[in-house]
């Protein structure tokens, strides 16, 4: 059932609903727009492709969580909140991870995580660039976090989202971990 109100949310909900019964690779823009009874022109006004929509679904929600909680809660708890929203639509996210095209969700979530962490550390340090060891640690952490989340989905989500968030944070490389502690 479609329940969102903005055009982007409507299109996102349509794709999520369709993914419950079809592989994401087989869902077309026409399928998405027909399902929520909007025009293809509306879709292309907001998104350049189905993969752009897939990226937006994750980044929009993650951005809102990070913005709301990053200065209020420890990073492990913030990460747990992100994992919680993935769990809420686990069928969709599991199928999104299954798509292995060059525009895949996996690549998009990895790049989003790298960009998010880089921008956060740049802001925290008041720098315009980061040294190679910090950039490497960010990429290493993003790779691990994305793969652990993918494995968690594929293997039955045995840990709670809160536990997984804390585990991801506890495994964060030391060169970047210090930036993700709340300022006392």
UniProtKB/TrEMBL annotation:
Taxonomic superkingdom: Bacteria
Keywords annotated in UniProt: DNA-binding
A molecular-function term among this protein's GO annotations: DNA binding
Domain HTH tetR-type: residue ranges: 5-65
Gene3D superfamilies tied to this protein: Tetracycline Repressor, domain 2
Residue range(s) of DNA binding per entry: 28-47
Entries under Pfam families matching the protein: TetR_C_8, TetR_N
SUPFAM superfamilies listed in its UniProt record: Homeodomain-like (SSF46689)
The protein, known as: TetR/AcrR family transcriptional regulator C-terminal domain-containing protein
Species whose genome carries this gene: Paenibacillus polymyxa
